[in-house]
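SUBJECT: A protein chain and its fold
Encoding: whole-number codes for local backbone shapes
RECORD BEGINS BELOW THIS LINE
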Amino acid sequence: MSHSDRSSSGATQEQVRRETTGKDKAVGFTRPFAPFEWMIALRYLRARRSQGFVSVIAGFSFLGITLGVATLIVVMSVMNGFHKELLDKIVGINGHIFLQATESPLTDYDSIVHQVQDLPGIELALPLVEGPAAASTTNMAFALVRGIREADLKRLPGIAGHVTLGSLDGFDTAGGVVIGQRLAENLGLGLGDKIKLLTANGSQTPFGVVPRSKVYPVTGIFQIGMAEFDNLFVYLPLPEAQAFFNKAGEASVIEIFLKNPDTIDAARVEIQNQVMRPMIMTDWRERNRTFFDALNVERNVMFIILTLIVLVAALNIISGLIMLVKDKGRDIAILRTMGVTRGGVMRIFLITGAAIGVVGTFVGFLLGLVVAHNVETIRQFLNRLLDANLFPAEIYFLSRLPSVVDPGDVFSVVALTLVLSVLATLYPSWRAARLDPVDALRYE
């Protein structure tokens, strides 16, 4: 035994003697989580030349837990951001509840809008004429043309405040269209340029239906922030859209926006009792159920997969502690002969392993929050650094990488990691407590 080891052993023995005096010594056990247990446990975490491999395993365990916690927080925050942003964009431009006529054309849309608008919890009700069309200049693109009144367009949540060029003022009388930013870019259009709309629902002739086309000036350009919508929607004044799609005096659908989306079931009952004529009523959940169910499944699968990172790190804690127990067999035997109970030995190694998990979880928690709150800034930096587009809007629908930190998700990640870290220390600690001092010292 070297001089330094003898000195360390002597200091440890003296500390143990102090802790096991008085009442504790008289009854034959040490106080749980006594200072000397913490001192020995933290000393075992320090790197020494003879324990280099054990320290490497402990380091990798710490790194694995840190990265696992940080990755889980970031990924869950991004998935929450996707869900919230897509929901806001889809509902912000499409409404919460939709009313469509069944037995006769929807020519009494003004009356129905007036009835629905006065119901409690209704934010906005507006009639729309909607139909597909081809939009062309030198290029051609598919568009969804919507006829809407100026007053309603200015109150539409997805459009109001998102007009980047032009204005909505005088929309009813300007005789022009308001289009999305990406559609304008794809067709090479600017404010005041002409766009040609072509629909198959044209005028009826003895030879069949003749496609109808008309040229309109661009009076406004909006950017919602969702690539699919910015590349799809074209807004026309309601009377012009009715003439364009051969729907004189009628609407295709009445869209209803609620003040509180959580009251959608109660609102449907109120609307059904208020509107007497036969109507087909649907809501955004029915129209987008598959899409948002897929997002939830993906979110849960990602959580399970990334939890494996933490699980692997916890297994590293087990292997590191087992090697530490074998390396410290003589020290354990000395502690046992000095009066330290099996529980005391178990607590020493429990502290040693749990310290790796607790500190790793805390560092991962801080790292995850920092990255989650700055994920868009990091994406832009990597785009400039690598000269690449790491988040193409055409694929992910959104123009920016969203992130919403949910305290409940963060708590779940931290709690799960701490539980796994503590559970990983139980078996090696039990092995250490079961070590027979006679066998450990037999060959010393």
